[in-house]
Amino acid sequence: MSHLITGIGELVTQDDDDRVLPDAALVLDGPTIAWIGPASSAPACDSATDVGGRAVLPGWVDSHSHLVFDGDRSAEFAARMAGQAYAAGGIAVTVGATRTADDERLRQLVRQRVAVAMSQGTTTLETKTGYGLDVEHELRSARIAAGEVDEVTFLGAHLVPSAVDGITADDYVRLVCGPMLEAVRPHVQWADVFCERGAFTEEQSREVLLAARRAGLGLRVHGNQLGPGPGVRLAVELGAASVDHVNFLDDDDVDVLAASWSDPSRDGTVATVLPACDLSTRAPLAPARRLLDAGVPVALASNCNPGTSYTSSMAFCVATAVLQMHLTVAEAVRAATWGGALALGRHTGPGAVGSLTVGHRADLHVLEAPSMTHLAYRPGMPLTHSVWRAGQPVPSPIRG
Ligand SMILES: N=CN[C@@H](CCC(=O)O)C(=O)O
Ligand SMILES: [Zn+2]
Question: According to its UniProt record, in which pathway does this protein act (predicted)?
Answer without folding.
Answer: Amino-acid degradation; L-histidine degradation into L-glutamate; N-formimidoyl-L-glutamate from L-histidine: step 3/3
